[in-house]
Amino acid sequence: MKKLSVPVVVVVVVALWALMGLVRIPKVASEQPDIYGFGQLPVLLDGRIQPIDSTARNAMQVIRHKSTGRYARNGGEVKTIPAIEWLLELAAKPNVALTRPVFRIDNEEIKDNLRLPKDEKHFSVNDITAGNNFERLARESGRIHSKDASLRTPYEKSLKAVADSLLIYQRLSKSFRPQHSADFDSELTQLETIFPTGMAAVRAHETNAEHNEDDHHQFSGLIETLIDPSIRDGDRSGVMFWPRIIPVDTSWQSLSTNLLSSISTAASAESDWKIQFHPATKAYAGMISAYAKEEGETFNNKLREYQDYLKNNGFTIELSKTGKEFAFNNFDPFYKCEILYVLAFLLACGGWLTLAKWPNQTAYYLIALAAVIHTSGLIFRMWLEGRPPVTNLYSAAVFVGWGAVILGLILERIYRDGIGNVVASSVGFVTLLVAGGLSLSGDTMEMLQAVLDTNFWLATHVVIITIGYAATFVAGFLAIVYVVRDFVANKVPFDKTNRSSLTKMIYGIVCFATLFSFVGTVLGGIWADQSWGRFWGWDPKENGALMIVIWNAAILHARWGGIIRERGLVAMAIFGNAVTAWSFFGTNMLGIGLHSYGFMDKAFAWLMVFVCMQIVMLTGGLMLGTLGQAGKPVVQKSGQAAIGLPPVAQLVIEALVIVASFAITIFYLLKALGIWL
Questions:
Q1: According to the model, what pLDDT value does residue 640 have?
Q2: 233 CB contacts (<8 Å, ≥6 apart)?
């Protein structure tokens, strides 16, 4: 019991820290605007109902590459700012929002062309559009947009990303308040009051009859202020970051469309003109104006009135769902898992440097805790989407990490040597890191592609084949552990028993991966036959799935036939990481085929970094084996093929491969970071 005291205490403390985000919903002082209540209001965007908080976070992810802002308010110290607060400021205080440094720009050439400080990373709209920068951006963006994506230079891709971020900013600024409105609530009230006399003045003006010209000018000015000429974009499906915020019966409308509908309906009457604005429009007008004037009590009253309207008019389910998604955003389970996996990895590695058992035990319990949180996050996403766990590249990365963690925990439970802990924590962290990068494109729970809109096959083919991919990664990372342990064998004992047990782990996991990847690929063919009328079409994604099956089968056959032994198995398992990464993610980056719906421009450089690092690891593992053979006579064993080269020649070839692969790694790493042009 005493031995377990340290692991138990650590896990209990960490568990309490993790749960704090779930039970401690952020609140503001009673006299302040309830920005978090505003963040829970439902809107329709990307084909699904979501809270405004998610809209704000996703926009900030694209613009700033983080879900929060960080800047000083009112001349105070620099602080982390919730995305919903930034969005409210964008809607209610546009002039202030223009000064907030929320746009991230890393490309040095863009900074130079826009005359931005090179030692800064975050800039405001005023910084980016100073002087004639806006005109230059618009002109360059138009030129780049007409150019084929595959022919764009890194500078052009980065510049387009800046232009796209500015477009998102502009759309959001007009989603909750007409662009030219100064006091939205007051303007709505004035238009309601003056509408009958204003319409009469307009009709009289059209017929050159006598009328009050002041009424005509005031009415026309209000109409021009409240109606946006780009209203059609707000209700066009697929438009990024243009939420529909007004619930009309069972459908939703953008603010501009709803305003135009109310004005058009009132103006179409023959006489007795009277306008009625939608309660949601009036509620948003009241909240935005109150926030601009810093009237917290008025803001909260308008917020409660709108919440009551939604409850009393059949939108209780939407309110409940958005409230739960807000809590999920606040909990941020996958970020917490990343922290737990890093802590567990350090403890597991530390366990190899000491005879004490508590570091490895603590690591195991932390990974188990992280697995529970990871699983809860997956289940909650499934509930929000109404779909199985894998629907896009982001969710696939999260699910692969989850599968790898479960397999690692099973291995650790069986062998209790820390290897399962190291693999589970490292793969779990890396996959969630990849998922974080994939989330920079926006909403990770967007509406599915038509080809994926089948829950049965999402729950069978996609889940099974993804488990196979996860197992292949686990085998590869076990092999990397083998190479690392072999490299530091003088510091961390790595005897024949440990080598043998680790090799058995790799072999067993490869068997598991072969089965699941093969069954998943066959099920995918059946799905393709039902969806497209053919079982197999040599689509890049299909070829990638087949590559993984063939590679895993090749490992097993090479092992059974004596072509490879222990170190050969390790090398092939490591290269399995490269095969799986390319087949799983790389095929989507080709931009061709029926499965090319997960493309991310920057991801290719990171993919190449990962692949080259795997080549360095597998060649390094072979070099360690060659060094062990140097100076020894080569003995041909039964069933074992000889390479036919002396150890010195093998070492030279392996060194050349390592140097070349490492050089390519550095090159693509610089490209991924935007340093290499």
A1: 42
A2: 171, 239, 242
Report the candidate in 101, 90, 298, 276 with the shortest Cα–Cα distance to residue 189.
276
Who's near 30: CB < 8 A, 6+ residues apart? 300
Assign 80 to helix, strand or coil.
strand
Cα(426)–Cα(103) distance, rounded to whole angstroms? Answer: 31
Higher pLDDT among residues 554 and 208, named by residue: 554
Amino acid identity, position 339: I
Neighbours of 530 (CB within 10 A): 12
Residue that is written with structure tokens 């085929």 in the block: 593
Cβ 313 vs Cβ 404: under 8 Å: no
Rg (C-alpha) for the chain, rounded Å, is 30
Burial of 661 (0-12, 13-18, 19+ CB in 10 A): buried
CA distances from 419 to 135, 423, 499 (A): 57, 6, 11
571, two tokens:
């090398």
Burial bucket for residue 482 (CB in 10 Å: 0-12, 13-18, 19+): buried
The number of C-alpha atoms within 13 Å of 607 and in the hemisphere containing its C-beta is: 20
The encoded tokens of residue 612 equal 């080259």
Q: Each residue of 434-445: pLDDT tens digit? A: 888 888 877 888
For 593, phi then psi, to 5°, come to 90, 170
Beta-bridge mates of residue 51: 42
Q: How far apart are CA 105 and CA 177, in angstroms?
A: 28
Q: How far is CA 274 from each of CA 262, 269, 625, rounded to the nearest angstrom? A: 10, 9, 87
Query: What confidence tens digit (pLDDT) does each residue in 239-292 have?
Result: 566 899 999 877 898 998 899 889 888 888 776 788 889 999 999 999 999 999
Span 40-64, average pLDDT: 92
Mention every residue, 6+ apart, whose C-beta is less than 8 A from residue 354. Answer: none
Q: How far apart are CA 398 and CA 470, in angstroms?
A: 10
Phi-psi region of 622 (alpha: psi -120 to 50; beta: other; left: phi over 0): alpha
Give the Cα separation of 238 and 316 in Å (integer). Answer: 26
Cα torsion angle, 109, 110, 111, 112, sign = positive
pLDDT score, position 646: 78
List of residues 6+ apart from 474 with CB closer than 8 A: 403, 404, 407, 408, 423, 427, 509, 513
User: Does residue 325 contact residue 384 with C-beta atoms inside 8 Å?
Assistant: yes
